[in-house]
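Slide 14.
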Amino acid sequence: MTVALVFPGQGSQSLGMMAALAARYTAVPQCFEQASGVLGVDLWRLVSEGPAERLNMTEFTQPVMLTAGVATWRVWREQGGSPPAVVSGHSLGEFTALVCAEALPFEPAVALVHERGRLMQQAVSAGAGAMAAVLGLADAEVEATCAEAAQGQIVEAVNYNAPGQVVIAGDTAAVERAMRLAAARGAKRTLRLPVSVPAHSSLLRGAAQELQHKLGSIALAPPRCRYVSAMDAAAHSDPEDIRATLVRQLASPVRWTDTVRALLAVAPTLIECGPGKVLTALNRRIERTARCLSLEDPESIAAAVSAAEGADPGGDTAASGAAHA
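Slide 15: predicted structure.
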C-alpha cells in the first residue's frame, strides 16, 4: 500500500490536457475555477482553447501546472487512491507536492508560482538565456563540457533527469558552445529546448532573492506526509527549512535521479500525479524494476488505484532519503 506521488513541472503542459478528467470529475473544473479566481484569469479556457503561446508563457504555465496537479490529486483521493507515504516534484512540481501534503495552502500557492514565473522571465532578457538537453554522456562529462564551454559566461548542468540525460542552461552563447563540445565528446544528441529562461542556473539567483520576499508572507505548515526535495534528494519537514529550500531550488540543479532513488527507498510504487507521462518515462529509465504509473484519464486512475491496493506494503515511511522548470 506504500506509494510515492510525484508531480511534474513545466514542459508537461499541452492544449486540451485534463479534458478527459474534467468530463468525468467535477473536482477538476472546480479546482481550475478556484485558481482562476486568485489570478483573475480563466485558466481552464487557456488550457482548453489557448493560444498555445500564452499557455507556454512561464507566468501562466506555472499556475496551470500547479492547478492541474492539485486537481488530479483531488480526483485520486476521491476515487479511493491511498494517501502517499512520500511526495516530491520536478522543479515547479515541488510546490504542487507541498500543496497536496498540506504544507502550502492552494490559493496562496497559485499566486506564488504565478509570481515565480514572472520573476524567472524578468531575470534574464529575451534571447540572452537558453537551455539544452544532452543525451548519452555521463554526468561528469556534461559538467566538464560546461566548464570548458563557459569562457567567462555561465553554462551549467541544471537537470539531472536520468542516467545519460542532463539538461544544461545559462547564457545562450555558452550553451551553444557546450552543445558543440558535447557532440564532439560523443553525445548521442544535443537538443535546444524551446524556452528562453535558463531555469535552475545561477543566472536566476536574483529571482530567487525576490521570491524569498514573496514566500515570507505565506504561512507554511509541516507536511502531513514525507516530502523529499528534488534539489538535494533529502526530506524536509520544518516549515522554515522548506521555505529556504523553495528559495534555493530556483537557482539550483534538479537532481531527479537521486530523488527517485530516495523515494524508492520509502515506497516501491511511483505515481505521476498530473498531465503527461514525462516523469514516468524518466522514473523507468532510472530504475527499470520500479512500478511506475501515471494518472492521465479515468482509466489510468482506476488502474492505479487498483495497483496501489496491491502494492508491496514493505516500505518504511520513516526511512532516510540518502522536464526543466
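Speaker note: The chain has a mean pLDDT of 93.
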